[in-house]
Specification:
about 60% helix; single chain; 8 strands; about 550 residues; mainly alpha; about 5% strand; two-stranded antiparallel sheet
């Protein structure tokens, strides 16, 4: 027995871990590229931890004022700055590999948040959040919030002009909270802004609290994923009772290992060749200059854009001697609060309006859930409009346009764009469902034209194979909720009727416009009625053979 074998046998005899490893090795994972989005987030986080460990050894989290005596860059020599900013510049120019690690760390943070968002989009559009995965959806949404907090706290640590202005905006937003805003700001900053404690506090959050919570949630997320059956895309032979794919060992583990090295290599290449967050170009934080053309990282753009779109005059209300700064409160607290409340509550909302309590392991095609898909697209459009608003100064200078005209156009688009996107997406989904029905009933257009003896011309359609037919008919189309009448048989008014009536209206919004999947009877009728001419040309494909012929078989 080799040394590795002896060590494994030693460990197995004392922990019985062999049975667990054997069980995990046989776990089947489906093979689809979109499942790699979660892995990109995981491996980006690993790169973040590794590069962050390196940077922590050279960063000084202090706001004490010092003078920079370094040679590079020459423009900063002799300037008064915080110790945090000085250590960031020294790390970039004097520590071997420091600038590379800084840029790898920053790019990894952007990719980490981006891959979480894309991963959650995939889960949302395919319905992977449904029972029994509601808890994992909440864990994923919580990780997204923590990732945003980690990104912003790390972004603010260098104490340069750009990050300082971001903290100044946060201070204004916190102070806009009714009644307690000033006290919360004083508590966060340790006094009047900027105080002397915000950088050490952000440093503690960034390197200890948030990563610790993320590691715990990632472990819990992966544990639940392994414990439950993996979701899979619809297709022939794929049901809620099986998983079609490859075992974890050796196939999936080998793919994950290769994926990790690819991601780490790409992030290293980006850090080596693509400059980002060169803080020496901005200079140390000074509250007096606020330069144009500065934007936060992409995941905060929607908040910055919402603040720029919100009108100022007339939105500061004085009530009972207290000033309500609605021009800050609405875009920076109310709007994100509604967004994340909807994000956390969507699985329960959809289950309530559907009345569905069953488990789901086969994913939805987005076209088969028009309202859900349209809602996701509408939110994406709203995000893009706010992101454009966060760059309104750059758009104005690059294209010689009026910044006021740009702002007003984007204000209109913020309300019109999502509604239009919702309507168009819903109609497209319903159209695709009708196209599926047409294909199942009549087959693909073959382009083959046949002339009969009576002079009539017809096109011969190619029937669908069993796999494609299964894909296009094997889904559920929920109907709006049915509720009990207002009064019972004795004329007594039923309790809870008003609540049921409200939920019924919401359910009708979701499912009133729907296209039923083709049934086996419809397939048989379509192939038996009006197809005599086609049968005279070539035999029709069997219509009722096995489960793929229609829903539920």
């Amino acid at each position: 027995m080799t040394g590795v074998g002896k060590a494994a046998d030693y460990l197995d005899q004392r922990t019985s871990i062999g049975a667990l490893v054997n069980q995990l090795a046989r776990k089947v994972f489906p093979d689809h590229w979109s499942f790699m989005l979660g892995e990109i987030a995981l491996f980006s986080f690993v790169v973040l931890i590794a590069s962050g460990f390196f940077l922590t050894m050279f960063f000084e989290p202090s706001m004490a004022l010092v003078r920079y005596e370094g040679e590079h860059p020459a423009t900063l020599h002799g300037q008064l700055m915080s110790a945090a900013f000085r250590s960031t510049v020294e790390m970039s120019f004097e520590v071997r590999g420091g600038l590379l690690m800084r840029q790898i760390h920053h790019w990894a943070a952007l990719i980490f948040v981006g891959s979480i968002v894309l991963h959650m989009f995939r889960i949302f559009f395919t319905g992977a959040f449904r029972k029994p995965r509601e808890v994992n959806w909440i864990i994923g949404a919580t990780m997204l919030v923590l990732a945003l907090a980690a990104g912003f706290s790390g972004y603010s640590l260098p104490d340069d002009v750009l990050s300082g202005n971001g903290l100044r905006i946060i201070d204004g937003v916190v102070k806009s909270i009714p009644l307690i805003g000033s006290f919360v700001s004083f508590l966060v900053f340790g006094g009047e802004f900027p105080g002397e404690h915000i950088i050490p506090r952000l440093f503690t959050l960034h390197i200890f609290v948030i990563p610790g919570l993320l590691i715990a949630l990632i472990a819990l997320h992966l544990f639940i994923m392994v414990l439950q059956k993996h979701t899979q895309y619809p297709g022939g032979g794929r049901t809620d009772r099986n998983v079609v794919g490859y075992p974890a060992l050796p196939v999936y583990v080998a793919k994950m290992t290769g994926n990790f090295f690819i991601i780490a290599g790409v992030l290293t290449l980006m850090g080596a060749t693509m400059a980002i967050n060169n803080v020496w170009n901005y200079g140390p934080y000074d509250p007096s200059p606020v330069s144009a053309g500065t934007q936060p990282d992409w995941y905060i753009l929607f908040v910055d854009g919402a603040l720029r779109l919100m009108p100022g005059p007339g939105w500061e209300w004085v009530i009972g001697g207290y000033t309500l700064s609605m021009n800050l409160l609405i875009p920076a607290i109310v709007v994100p609060g509604i967004l994340f409340t909807l994000l956390f509550g969507w699985p329960f909302l959809e289950a309530r309006v559907t009345g569905d309590r069953g488990e789901h392991h086969v994913l939805d095609r987005p076209r088969n859930r028009p309202v859900r898909t349209a809602t996701g697209v509408a939110l994406f459009v709203a995000f893009m409009v706010c992101a454009l608003a966060a760059t309104n100064d750059l758009i104005a200078t690059h294209f010689s346009l009026s910044i006021f005209a740009i702002t007003w156009v984007l204000r209109v688009l913020l309300f019109v764009g999502p509604v239009l996107a919702f309507w168009v997406t819903k109609r497209v989904c319903l159209g695709l469902q009708r196209k599926d029905r047409e294909l199942v009933l009549h087959g693909h257009e073959s382009g083959r034209i046949v002339r009969f003896a009576n002079g009539e011309y017809v096109e011969v359609h190619a029937p669908l194979d069993e796999q494609e037919r299964w894909l296009r008919v094997n889904y559920d189309s929920p109907a709006p909720l049915e509720i009990a009448p207002l009064t019972d048989s004795r004329g007594v008014r039923r309790k809870g009727y008003r609540s049921d009536r409200r939920w019924q209206r919401v359910s009708r919004f979701f499912y009133e416009d729907r296209v039923e999947p083709v049934t086996p009877a419809e397939v048989a009728a379509a192939h038996g009625h009006g197809h005599g001419r086609h049968a005279a040309i070539e035999p029709a494909a069997p219509a009722g053979s096995g489960a793929p012929a229609g829903k539920g078989e």
